[in-house]
Amino acid sequence: MTYKTETGITFQKAFDAVQWAMRHGKHVDIYKGDKFLRRLV
């Protein structure tokens, strides 16, 4: 699983992605390979 921000940054860990989203007030989506699964935050 990878976690991609709406600005194109990719994180490997959900915790890091959530921290980033809280700092920047943006959304993060969960991907499995290139397939979108769901929005994390």
| Record field, number of beta strands | 4
Supply the number of helical segments. Answer: 1
Biggest sheet strand order reads: 2-1-3-4
Order of helices and strands: EEHEE
Globally, the shape reads globular
Radius of gyration: 9 Å
Q: What is the rounded distance between the termini?
A: 15 Å
Throw out a few tags for this protein.
four-stranded antiparallel β-sheet, 41 residues, alpha+beta, 27% helix
Describe this structure as you would to a colleague.
The protein has 41 residues and is of the alpha+beta class. The chain has one domain. It is globular and about 25 Å long. The model has no long low-confidence stretch (mean pLDDT 97).
